[in-house]
Amino acid sequence: MKITNEIILSHGLKIDEYSKIKTLLNRDPNFLELGIFSAMWNEHCSYKSSKIHLKKLPVKNKYVIQGPGENAGVIDIGDDDAIVFKIESHNHPSFIEPYQGAATGVGGILRDVFTMGARPIALLNSIHFGSPENTKTKSLLNGVVSGISGYGNCIGIPTIAGETKFNRTYNENILVNAMAVGLANKNKIFYSKAKGTNKSVVYVGSKTGRDGIHGASMASEEFDENSEEKKPTVQVGDPFTEKLLMEACLELMKENSIISIQDMGAAGLTSSSVEMAHKGNLGIELNLDKVPCREENMSPYEMMLSESQERMLLIIEDGKEESAKKIFEKWDLEFVVIGKTTQTNNLVLKFKNEVVASIPIDALSSKAPLYDRKWNKKKVSSKKVDLKNLESIKFDEAFLKIVSSANHSNKKWVTEQYDQMVMGDTVERSGTDAAIVRIHNKDKAIAVTVDSSANYCKSNPKTGGKQVVCESWRNLIAVGAKPIAITNCLNFGNPENPEIMGEFAENILGMKEACEFLNYPVVSGNVSFYNGTNKKNIFPTPVIGGVGLIKNLKRIQNHRFKKIDSQIIVIGKTFGHLGQSVFLEELYSLQDGPSPEVNLTNEKNNGEIILKLITSGAINSVHDISSGGIILSLAEMSLSSGIGVKISKPNKISNIFEYFFGEDQSRYILEIDKKNYPKVEKILKDNGIYFQKIGITQNNLFELDKHLKISVKELYDINNKWYNSYNGFVS
Amino acid sequence: MKFSVIITLKKDVLDPQGKVVQQTLQNMGMDSLRNLRQGKYFEIEINELDEDKAKNIIEQMCEKLLVNLIIEDYKIKKL
Amino acid sequence: MKFSVIITLKKDVLDPQGKVVQQTLQNMGMDSLRNLRQGKYFEIEINELDEDKAKNIIEQMCEKLLVNLIIEDYKIKKL
Amino acid sequence: MNSAVIVFPGSNCDRDIASALTKLQFKNKMVWHKDTELPKSDLIVIPGGFSYGDYLRSGAIAAKSNILKEVIKSAKSGSIVLGICNGFQILIETGLLSGALLRNKNLKFISKDVNLKVVNNNNKFCSKYKKDNIISLNIAHNEGNYFTNKDHLKELEDNELIPFKYCNSKGVISNESNPNGSLNNIAGILNREKNILGMMPHPERMIDDLVSNTDGIDLFSSILN
Ligand SMILES: Nc1ncnc2c1ncn2[C@@H]1O[C@H](COP(=O)(O)OP(=O)(O)O)[C@@H](O)[C@H]1O
Ligand SMILES: [Mg+2]
Questions:
Q1: B61 and C CB contact within 8 Å
Q2: B45 touches chain C (CB under 8 A)
Q3: Contacts with D76 (C-beta within 8 Å, 6 or more apart), sequence order
Q4: Dist. CA D53–CA B20, nearest whole Å
Q5: Can you give the pTM of this predicted structure?
Q6: What is the mean pLDDT of residues A253-274?
Q7: Which of D55, D61, D141, D149 to mutate to test the interface with C (most CBs of C within 10 A)?
Q8: Is D202 an annotated catalytic residue?
Q9: CA distance between the termini of chain A
Q10: Options A11, A90, A128, A278, the catalytic residue
Q11: How does DSSP assign A505-573, residue by residue?
Q12: Residue C12 carries which DSSP code?
């Protein structure tokens, strides 16, 4: 087949990229080779637009065993235990087919984690939809949530935390990010690096079909009117097979048979084989006649680019093939030797006794294009929002409107579709600042959370990047965990647009600053560009997945009020920052003013003291203050416990809206037994921590001076209405 | 008027259910089984006497709710 | 030889899925809808040229695995 | 006491129930579905999960496995058999228990803690509970909507074959306190001889205050008794 410009472009390659291919090969590629290049050189696999920026992020602290660059990050949590985790996007497939897109997103991230020798112990997700009024939103919401639940429940890993948000910026491009967390023995971590020549390359798992051919390049393109037609065969998830694959891999890992292992994710057989060879500085030769196929007459092109799910590639020690095969047969899975490692440093593909492709590995990996794309610095607004210019509203009306809004309603409708208890170690489920999973049969645990703040990042990508890292840190602190490390999923628009590239570059700088200051490095992550349609890009939406360590399960905390007549205090300074707040968004549909700044010194000091107080057992409950300000945080504490509050505004700040809806950072609310209060007050003062007394807990009534008075029960009903009426079912 | 709707997965789309059912039958000794695919079936009765109109309504039901056109095909038949 | 198998819930068995689908369609404005029931559909290909024998094999598949005879009925058809 | 937990491809509460049994002093053995012999045991448990992906009908394929033939034999000769969630679905598919488990009435997977009333404790599984106790157990299923014909329902009610019914926190058994649409709020049933219990809620998830509560313990200690 003659390779025309049209064919090149339809593979998502630029003409100058094609010239580079010819130079690297010293000849024209054939059609199969072109397909392989397109898969490896697209944004999703090559990180060509993001790499130079990602390098700036800190990736190490004393806990990190493996940073970015492997299937997932690994941290040390003591006693030979290691936690393996990563987050990944599945945005475009989920927009096309929400159930299968979300399901296969969960499946993909799980493979990244058990590939490294870890048994997955928790799933999280961050899902962003368009505005609820948008005609597509309802079915996307239903499809995505049931896809996540369908896959996670079936494979038997608890889905215990996440976030569900609505914003018109996602009307034509939803976000579905899934995170998996696994537990491994730190001396038995498995990597993708191939070692030794002439070793067997083994294909295991499901058969290969024509699914998702070009899925990776689709993830690297904008949507347009024609996307529907360009649609490849949709990948269907098979959680049952994944469960078998997981058990078989974990069983095989107990023996010393595996040299290296890599899941087949985006760009399937191509990227997995190239990755293994590249890391090991070797070549690889595959005999495509051996690839187990689901359909008849599959071509080498289809086999190499298929994104069929639930498959893995292994390199096995000499003489271990038979015993390894037995394990996969026990689990009714394919196990076929399809090739070997070589010295050539080439990817060589044979089919029907002919060499059908031969490409130097480095041409596909280290020599792939890298771009330092042009980027513009954001012009940031610094004009403070003036309430005088807004139509006036009564405080209680404003509050109830927010509590009943799509974004701030109780998310039980979502979380009750997820099995949160399977595996028997879920100490805190969804609904808390961070979920907690016990390490099986031990007295320690990890805390996990995912967070994002698109509005803040849109208005000021740098501050936003800082803020979202701090929010993640704060959520872990609030349950009594020491924050250890993060994974991030960077969902952005089109990087060829200098404004968007600027959002990305500055966002990274902000994240870097916070991660460094808090000693909270990035150990894995994923970049998803081209989120948008026809030049309309989504708000920059970095999603942070945080993991913290709890050494002693007797010293944990949550945000549920425990008693009436305890003291309530706010830690951290309240200036009344309303820029980019929920208050403006929900009540005035305004995204206005600057994002809240984070003072990293205060963040760190406040957090460390909270952790100390939790460990000392001196407080009854704690909650971080995030979107919606003090009043929303108080409401969440009341709603989850049934206990009310009697609150007054401290005199200093004049405006009640600013004080209670303001979104200043680095703050927490504490509930303290009156008898413990003097002790806590002393600790805070001795450490120079700013705090204010704002009221006490009381029976039943949620009350703020003369501005608000409602029973907690009534508040609960208001908070629980939205999802059920939107979806039209009552459960 | 009463219709049946048969919904099947498109040809190249993976059918995990069908696969497992087929394997189970083969394990049970049904050696002659060559291929099995699973689909959905609906029996729908509507108050409409004009056959063309009725068919049209059923078609709408399929396109708007019953069928996932991205991965499924359907066939309507009058009963 | 290729057959289709249609499996439906017996008349007196509650069909929660059909019921919800029916309600949803009605909520979507399909007023003429009178009744809807959901079932399963299989397409099965076997290596057997004798039609009677083939049918017999399919029947066995139904009775032994595909159908829960306590709550379901089935129909076999040659394609 | 010896127990055996049957493991199918796709079972995923097998480890949980094994941990619970061990913690509560059972000597437990895991039994792979391809095995053809049951170890000597006083209690056979069929755990929750998605055996064979819940494909075709939940429980249908597992019910045809080798080991189930042995379980059926053993059950018919009086062994104590407990099926939880998917295990209940499997017992129904084998015919050891009658009726059907249909899709939840809202067609969604439901995972939450629910209240149950111990409506009958006159059996080997519930003797440690007091009659009319209200306990809270976790459910997590897609198909737990119990259905059966009138005659069988009457038999279940008349012969104290329903140990648990869904209720609210005050013990009221009503439509509102019925999570999945089960007939008469039935959460579990016994066979006529009362040696086989199938139930949708997960007692093995409720044996530890740190993760939930301890309302499930009495079920296991009743069996030990
Ligand atoms: N998609 C989801 N999956 C799992 N848990 C979720 C999901 N969406 C929301 N949650 C849970 O609901 C709770 C409230 O969510 P959210 O309002 O976003 O929390 P916050 O504002 O404290 O970050 C959190 O505990 C979160 O873990
Ligand atoms: Mg929070």
A1: yes
A2: yes
A3: none
A4: 9
A5: 0.94
A6: 93
A7: D149
A8: yes
A9: 57
A10: A90
A11: HHHHHHHHHHHHHHT--EEEEEEE---EETTEEPPPEEEEEEEEEES-TTS---SS---SS-EEEEES-
A12: T
**Which pLDDT does position A609 carry in this prediction?**
97
d(CA A505, CA A492): 11
Residue B28 has pLDDT above 50, yes or no: yes
User: In chain A, which residue's Cα lies nearest the Cα of B68?
Assistant: A97
d(CA A160, CA A416): 10
Asked if the model's pLDDT at residue D222 lies above 70, the reply is yes
Q: Is a pLDDT exceeding 90 seen at residue A266?
A: no
Report residue A228's pLDDT band, with 50, 70 and 90 as the boundaries. Answer: very low
Query: Which of D34, D52, D55 to mutate against chain B (most B CBs within 10 Å)?
Result: D55
Contact residues, chain D, for A441 at CB < 8 Å: 19
> pLDDT digit string (tens) for A446-468?
999 999 999 999 999 999 999 99
Which residue has its alpha carbon closest to ligand 1 atom 15?
Answer: A163
Burial state string for A664-682 with b = 16 or more CB within 10 A and e = fewer than 16: bbbbbbbbbbeebbeebee
A430 within ligand 1 shell (Cβ under 6 A) = yes
Q: Does the pLDDT at position A423 exceed 80?
A: yes
Q: Tokens for D7, please give them.
A: 């493991």
- CB-CB neighbors (< 8 A) of D64 in chain C: 64-65
Q: Which helix (H) or strand (E) holds B3?
A: strand B2-9
Does C2-78 carry CATH code 3.40.50.10490?
A: no
- Using the Cβ of D152 and the Cβ atoms of chain C, whether some distance falls under 8 Å is answered with no
Instruction: Please enumerate, as own/partner, the contacts of A362-367 that have beta carbons within 8 Å and a separation of 24 or more.
Output: A362/A278, A363/A21, A363/A24, A363/A25, A363/A37, A364/A36, A364/A37, A364/A40, A364/A41, A364/A274, A364/A278, A365/A40, A365/A274, A365/A275, A365/A278, A366/A278, A367/A24
Grade residue A231 by pLDDT with cuts at 50, 70 and 90: low
Our answer on whether the CB atom of A407 is closer than 6 Å to any ligand 1 atom is no
pLDDT digits (tens, 9 = 90+) for A711-723: 999 999 999 999 9
**Of A123, A430, A471, A667, which is best to mutate to test ligand 1, by the most ligand atoms within 8 angstroms of its C-beta?**
A430
Domain range list for chain B:
2-78
Catalytic annotation, pick one of D70, D93, D141, D202: D202
Mutate which: B17, B22, B36, vs D, most D CBs within 10 A: B17
Query: What is the distance in angstroms between the Cα of C41 and the nearest Cα belonging to chain B?
Result: 5
Average per-residue pLDDT in chain A? 94
| Predicted pLDDT of residue A493 | 96
Closest residue to atom 17 of ligand 1, CA basis: A408
pLDDT exceeds 80 at position A480: yes
Whether A408 is catalytic? no
CA pair distance A93, A495, nearest whole angstrom: 20
Collect all residues of chain B within an 8 Å Cβ-Cβ radius of residue C36. 42-45
In SS3 terms, A177-232 reads as: EEEEEEEEECCCCCCCCCCCCCCEEEEEECCECCECCCHHHHCCCCECCCHHHHCC
3-class secondary-structure state, position A601: helix
Query: What is the C-alpha to C-alpha distance for residues A12 and B23, in angstroms, rounded to an integer?
Result: 39
Residue identified by tokens 């394919």 is A334
Which of A163, A404, A559 is the best mutation target for the ligand 1 pocket, counting ligand atoms within 8 Å of the beta carbon and taking the most? A163
Q: Note residues around ion ligand 2 (Cβ under 5 angstroms).
A: A 433, 475
* Coil/strand/helix, residue A152: helix
Q: Which segments of A255-364 are extended strands (E)?
A: 258-263, 283-287, 311-316, 334-342, 346-351, 354-360
Structural domains of chain D ordered from first start: 2-224 (3.40.50.880)
- pLDDT grade, residue A218 (50/70/90)? low
Are the beta carbons of C16 and D60 separated by less than 8 Å?
Answer: no
Q: How far apart are CA B62 and CA C33, in angstroms?
A: 13
